[in-house]
Amino acid sequence: MPAVWRARYRLTPWWARVLIVWALSRVVTTTLILMLARVQGENAWTGANPNYVDFATMWDGRWYNIVAVSGYPTVLPLTAAGQIGENAWAFMPGYPVVARSLMILSGQEWAPVAVFVSVAFSAGTALLFYRLMNRMLDSSTALFSVVLFCVAPLSPLLQFGYAESMYLFFLTLALYLLLERRYGLLFPTIAVMALTRPSGLAFALAMGLHVVLRFVTRVRDPFGGRERMLAVSVAIFSGVMGLAWPVAAWIVTGSLTAYTDTELAWRAPYIGYQELVPFAAWFQSGVWWLGSPQGILVVIALIVAFTLVMFTPAVRRLGVDLRFWVASYALYLLAVFFPQSSTFRLLMPLFPLLGAVAMPRHPLYRIGIVLLLVAAQWGWLLICWGVDGRDWTPP
Description:
The chain has one domain (3-385). The protein has helices spanning 3-11, 14-38, 52-55, 60-70, 94-106, 110-134, 139-151, 164-180, 186-194, 200-216, 225-253, 258-265, 268-271, 281-290, 294-310, 313-316, 320-336, 343-346, 354-357, 363-385. It starts with a helix and ends in a 10-residue tail after the last helix. 67% of the residues lie in helices and 0% in strands. The protein is an all-alpha fold.
């Protein structure tokens, strides 16, 4: 790099560097999206060759639209067999409430507002993610972590009518506040985060592990009574917020299992209607996709591989608290999630691991990994977003 460019780079504020990365990544991703929209045929959500905002608010974006405009049903819909059917209670209110508020203020319709909200939160997340990574990594590696986040295979969701962009913003903020030990500010952050995407219980576990570690190491890292009570209160509050939405569904519908029954409706096309048995769904999915015992063995291998990854030197460099979050969220998914077409999207909260991927500094590695992730974006758009009648859907 010429000396003049190095000088300009050093004089550029960190936030400007991050926003440049974010903007360039949005140009690349938007180009891919528009290329696919140009050949999109008529489908259940749009006509042929839809414009950007219509194409970006398909699939579950329609559910968020329903929530923003009509709210939640007081009577749960039933299938012909008498089971609880798919309904809006599976979609938390944080994102549609923000979009609805802007719809009222601006007079605009759902689609452009929903996309605007996601894009704005994605920029904010990129900025926060840099600050988060820069606590453990040097500035160059932290910035490259942002690059990977912005070009990741599912980064198109950061500008679609989905809640992920807003959720990742508040999750990143919560993790940053946790590392800063600013426990008081975690209360409002967790409240919004847990009502945007299911995460309160996972964060409660991570917070609990943080409290235990601080208590055990209190001799070399003082953990006074006031700070201790505040941290414990945050862990309890996060657990309460993790249960708040199922309780709200119970109060409104009168059904104690309204939320879990609604979530189970999405796996019914695969394995039929079954009870929610913690830690069983991954094995049920493995058998459904691969048969027995192959499916069970694959799930066990994935668990072992993930555990080994968590103890690699690169991941350990991310610090204990981020590893607590990654492990807690992974355990939460293992306990309640049935792997299917939205698996990749539900893995997005593991994004702090991108810091470990960003550590190698060789230019060929960094160029290669960026090109690979951009190609994976195109693959995800083709497989999980575009509608051609043969989709592995919904995304």
